[in-house]
């Protein structure tokens, strides 16, 4: 059974269950490893096992607010993170859209971190940023900051980086 099939089955079971049975279904799905319950005491969401962040509040799996995830094994100078944070926040401000809580980069190849797939996190909601920040001309400040990280250490395949923008 695929992950999507499992999620559809759980959703159908919950849809036709009473309140007490819903909790039993969620407990069984968590015990079987198909769902994980958010550890944030203010959130009661159950999330699919492949999801990194809670759909309800956007916190991490361990019930903590999201923080930066630095990808390398080595300490990247803090000035490089500040430059990237400033450039990404300025990008959203220039667009006139709300600045996301965090931006997530998942590297699967391409010109260093500029080739990463990028998602903006707004609480528990993630929005993919089409084409990420690959276009150097369209995203000059971000491209420069990402290239600086890449020069420091080239990302490995499937490496994950999260940059928190919310203060």
Question: What key phrases describe this protein's structure?
Answer:
single chain; 167 residues; alpha+beta; 4-stranded antiparallel beta sheet; two-stranded antiparallel ribbon; 4 helices; 34% helix; elongated
Architecture overview:
- Helices cover 34% and strands 17% of the residues.
- The protein has 167 residues and is an alpha+beta fold.
- The strands form 2 sheets. Strands 5-4-3-6 form a 4-stranded antiparallel β-sheet, covered by helices on one side. Strands 1-2 form a two-stranded antiparallel ribbon.
- Helix 1 (3-15) packs antiparallel against helix 2 (19-31) and helix 3 (78-95) runs antiparallel to helix 4.
- The longest helix has 18 residues, at 78-95.
- The radius of gyration is 18 Å and the shape is elongated.
- It starts with a helix and ends with a strand.
- The relative contact order is 0.15.
């Amino acid at each position: 059974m695929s992950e999507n099939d499992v999620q559809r089955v759980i959703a159908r079971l919950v849809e036709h269950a009473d309140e007490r049975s819903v909790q039993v279904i969620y407990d069984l799905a968590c015990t079987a490893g198909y769902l994980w319950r958010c550890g944030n005491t203010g959130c009661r969401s159950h999330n699919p096992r492949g999801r990194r962040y809670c759909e309800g509040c956007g916190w991490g799996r361990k019930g903590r607010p999201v923080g930066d995830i630095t990808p390398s094994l080595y300490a990247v100078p803090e000035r490089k993170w500040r430059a990237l944070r400033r450039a990404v926040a300025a990008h959203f401000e220039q667009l006139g859209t709300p600045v996301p809580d965090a931006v997530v980069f998942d590297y699967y190849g391409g010109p260093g971190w500029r080739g990463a797939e990028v998602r903006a996190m707004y609480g528990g909601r993630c929005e993919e940023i089409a084409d990420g920040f690959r276009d150097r001309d369209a995203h000059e400040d971000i491209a420069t900051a990402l290239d600086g990280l890449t020069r420091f250490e080239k990302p490995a395949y499937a490496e994950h980086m999260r940059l928190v923008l919310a203060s």
